[in-house]
Amino acid sequence: MRGLVVLVTLACFATAQHQALIDYLERRLLAIEDRISLWHEQTTRYASELRELKQQMVSQLETLDKEKETLRMNLDGVGTRVDRVERELDYLETHNGAQPCVDVDDKLIEQQVTLVKEKQKAQYLKLSDCSDMISSIKAMKILKRVGGQKGMWTKDTSRASGKVYIFNGTDEDTIHVFATIQDFTRSQGMSLSNNLKLPSAWKGTGHVVYKNNVYYVNQGEEIMVVKYDTRNNSVTDSAVFPVQDHVPVYGLTPETVMDLAVDEEGLWAIYATRQNERHISLAKMDTNSLDIEQMWDTNCPRENAEAAFVICGTLYVAYNTKQPGRSRVQCVFDVNGMVTNEEAPLVYFPKRYGSHSSLKYNPQEQLLYAWDDGYQILYKLIMKKKLEI
């Protein structure tokens, strides 16, 4: 009997120890599970933070790549400008020798002045056999009214292109491009156009589209002519116009500090300076390098001038008349000296709404693209040969 009691006691003690061991193991397992859960949460958080850090790094690297490309383009532009300045300095040094430190004979000075004047009067070398001039305006067609009071519209003047380019305003950076002139006329506002955003704002209304390039005027501390390729959407060249003390070229369009024009000969710049403040000046530009090939001071006054254009090397300036809604071409300057104001026929524009803020000649169509108080107008021209005058 006593032995049985001992056995029962031992069995109970063993059971208690076994239960205590099980309880201990359960507590340890729960603690391990808690640790594993904590590690899982921390690992998940670390992985999320690592992904966010990776995304930030990728974004920063993309930003750095863009800034690197911008810096490279700026450096290329600076290099181009430095090269142009060096060429201009070489030109000035070649054509303007150092002043002598001794007295020079008055007769010799007169000979040098005469030589300089003869060079300024040198015959312009024509690039084409064009000898047309305006005889009269045959017809006027108002297409529509879109945009603000001042602007410019045109086609690519170098080819039979169907695209229509709308430069709305005088200080913007987005061109509205229509696939055809039919799309332009039936569009509600600019709804059927594609936007072409330039890297900088244009100034005034003196811009052209020529051989798939937009040539526009940008004004900061200096007057800049920018050449923008519409095919790859990039600036291919830019140049500071090498004339100081600019003034608005037209008395009635003060926003236009320079007016670019295209004719059968290529690219022209119409401008004015304080040195010749009362009259308009003309320059022939190289379409590739934007270098100035030749410059002329005309006898066309700025006062009451509203716009101008070039045909076959002849500058035509339109002026506002005293009659409401009427303007006419009353000053002509031919770089070859074949046409004078006295010989040129008077060209009157039909009655219109306000004042022309731009007149752009298209040599392929022999049309003038006019912007008149927000109206887009086409003028059909009748031409004649200069020698027929």
UniProtKB/TrEMBL annotation:
Origin: domain of life: Eukaryota
Domain Olfactomedin-like stretches: 129-385
Classification via Pfam families: OLF
Residues making up the signal peptide according to the UniProt record: 1-16
Keyword Signal: yes
Covalent S-S links between cysteines: C130-C312
Coiled coil: 47-74
Homology family: Belongs to the OLFML3 family.
Name of this chain's protein: Olfactomedin-like 3b
Organism of derivation: Acanthochromis polyacanthus
